[in-house]
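Reviewer 2 asked us to include a model.

Predict the structure of this chain.
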Amino acid sequence: MRSWIDHSGEVVWDPSPSLVAQLVAAGQPFWLDIENPANETIDQLATLLGLHPLAVEASKQFDQRAKLQVYGNGAMLVGFGLDDQLREPVEVHCYYTTGFLITLRRAASPALDALRRESVHPQLASDPIPALHPVISSLYTQFSALCLELDERLDTLEQRVLREADDQELAEITTIRHRAAVIRRTVTPGRDLAARMPLILSLPGTTSETEPYAEDISDQLQQVVAGLAAIEERCAALLALHASLASKHLAVVSRRLAAVATIFLPISFLAGFFGQNFSALVGSIEGWPAFLILGVGLSVACAGVTVFVLSRRGWN
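Predicted model (structure tokens):
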């Protein structure tokens, strides 16, 4: 478990429960971030800060959808960021009330770490949405960056598919499509939640400044979901293009094989005709001139005529 607390512009790593208790007793605003918290730690926070039992149970289990729950004077927000290495969604639980912000997560969150390094301090004594705006925005900005990365990768794959389509590109396009679909299903509930303005305005402490910040978050999530949907559509188009090019290649090969078979069809007829063991053929036709004219000459002539006819009809 790794944790830090930011209070009065000072960051303390692995803060003790007594420090948190002192800040709560003094009414001093703080931001506490815990990575991979133990159930005992969550229980201690629940006792110290009066967290709702349902919210505590959700944070113990994780695997939640994006949601916003109001409990008395506080609220629980479930959002998502991205893991910096695996580029997979990281579930983040945010507890907010006037005076403190707690973020819980099971994996590293580069977005939250970046806020700490840049000394971005949410205004915890103000309106909840402007206070949470830096956290939410930084989390979902990573998804916009991921969309750009996937789009650039699809540009490269598209050029490779147009040059020569093979199974390697097919597998990678399918992987990108599946990944975009999974992330889109993860982010979509957050987009729908951000559009529920009455629920957001029901948060304790909302003011006239709430709605512009909420709309900005909603717009950002709309763009993320739209970007992921566009990635899926582009993958589907590339898969269709891959199948079309593969079919075209197969058609070209089949056409060439058919042309070769057509060339040898009259030659096979000649070979079958002169191969009949009738005395009129066996006894009368002999010598090199007959072989060169009837055997070689007719075969070459049939092949030449067939190739000429096929070329005139565009069979390349």
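Residues 250-312 form one domain. The mean pLDDT is 82. We have added this to the supplementary material.
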